[in-house]
Amino acid sequence: MDPAAIDPHVFDELQANAGADFVRELVDTFAEEAPRLLAELRSALAAGAAERFRRAAHSLKSNSHTFGATRLAERARALELGGLPADAAALDALEPEIDSTRAALQALARA
Amino acid sequence: MSASLPGAEVFGRIEILAAERRLHVDGQAVALGSRAFDLLAALVARRERVVPKEELIEVVWPGLVVEDNNLQVQISALRKVLGTQAIATVPGRGYQFTVAASPAATATAATASASKGVLAPGAATRGSRLLVADDNKVNRLLLCRSLELMGHEVASADNGRSALDKLRTERFDLLLLDLEMPEIDGFGLLAQRQADAALRDVPVIVTSSIEGVAQVARCIELGADDFLHKPVNPVLLKARVDSSLERKHLRDRERELLARLAPPAADAPPRAGAAARRLQATLLVARLGDTEAFALAQAPHETLELLSSWSTLMLDAIESHGGLVTQLGGDTITAAFGIAPQADAASSALQAALEMHELAALFDRERTAAGRPTLAQGIGIASGEIVAGEAGTPRRAAFACIGAAVQRAARLEALATQRGGGAVLLDDATHAALAGRFATEAMPPAVLPGGTKAVPVHALKTA
């Protein structure tokens, strides 16, 4: 777990506004959605579908911002604005970041 | 507000206990027929819109063939109990329950514990129906949740096409629109909305994490009300949503008012046929006396409210007896009986006049009890051959009735109003057509206002 991956101010604010129970559900939804978005990024890259790639990166960025996952948001933003990468290296690097963000969020949500 | 009963829906003085089918007005139980109760419940459930007569009939008399009259009688019964203004008549369109829900009883944000003070529902716009269109599940859930905490009813769509389908089939007060979506994206939806007058009524707030001012500008050019960057700040969200909804409600009220003020559209009368015809008819003219002095002495809204209430009541009485309102002039109403085939136009006109007299007396009592000023009404009725048909320009046509009887009815009304105190005066032809079925009294022949020679005048005896 890597608490530094999450901006505590954003996460606290989210809990205060939407309710802690609801945020727990929302984190679970993110935990399901994020790997799907990664899979979409990989499949779009393989198909050379730049627009699909950009859109999946955009969604991941947007979700990360919602929870204050600033580091993951930055990576996703770079993918959104950078066009189709030459290879899957950036996506391979994204995977552990998604996993650690997910773990950090679930820990915070259940704290 | 005194302690309201558990489970009651409260609208000002009116408390409705749907489960027990009970109605309280000013804390007193009111006996209401079962049809009337069903009708009230139907109007209250649909209070955000004007409900067509056919729809009400289908709800209250399911599967039965029922004439408009039955509905109008029930509406009149409800108005007697609830006050005239509680149910508005929108000519040619239907009825609408107009009393706003009282806040205490309708706060639905049961989970308010999670919300801070700033997210408390805004009184004017709470309970609106919102649509969230966003393909991103996390964003969609969060936005729906935030809006629900503000006290709104929220539906959602996960792409632009499904959002458009929902907008076309259901009623919404506001759309929160994401830009990046499959099928049809936010820009595509905005473009389709611009081309569709019905959809343009629903304001749009775009919520997106899209970057660049150009995209925001494009949304505004395409008719979006506002733009919010994601992640959406809840305080900003509430402020923008409230503001959009308030403007929407204002526009709705304006439109409703216009609909009520507009003369019956050319398709509203039981289509007598656009071609002019010569026919036997009975004309009825009703007027409130001395509205000019009243308008000078009272606040403008007081005058308009009096005229609206009075018109509403008179219109119902006329229509429930088969009359066709040909002119609605604020303090004057002209109606024709016998345009649509009617066995006995003169009797129908007299029945309407009796009911108008009764409703006006009731209305006066209601206003006097509330310490508000009243005005006397005069009614003139005349029969004869007239020419009837649509006249006007292609853009705005009115149903016109021309003939000596029309003029005579207006002059009898002027005489009745001059004499004050709710007289109903008839000409000789109407009196003859009644053949003694209504109690009347012969008056000394009189020169009618605007006339030159004395004519016979009869007065209806009104108990």
Mass-distribution shape of chain A: elongated
Quaternary structure of the protein: heterodimer
Low-confidence stretches of chain A are none
Average per-residue pLDDT of chain B, rounded, comes to: 82
Class derived from helix and strand content of chain A: mainly alpha
Helix content of chain B: 40-55%
Report the order of strands and helices of chain A: HHHHH
Q: Compute the number of strand runs of chain B.
A: 19
Radius of gyration of chain B (CA) equals 27 Å
State the separation between the terminal residues of chain B, measured CA to CA. Answer: 40 Å
What share of residues are in beta strands of chain A?
under 5%
The secondary-structure class of chain B comes to: alpha/beta
Q: Tell me, briefly, the overall form of chain B.
A: elongated
Percent in strands of chain B: 15-25%
Low-pLDDT residue intervals, each spanning 5 or more residues of chain B: 105-124, 263-274
Strand count, sense and barrel status of the largest sheet of chain B are: 8 strands, mixed
Distance separating the two termini of chain A: 13 Å
What gyration radius of chain A follows from the Cα positions, in whole Å? 14 Å
Count of beta strands of chain A: 0
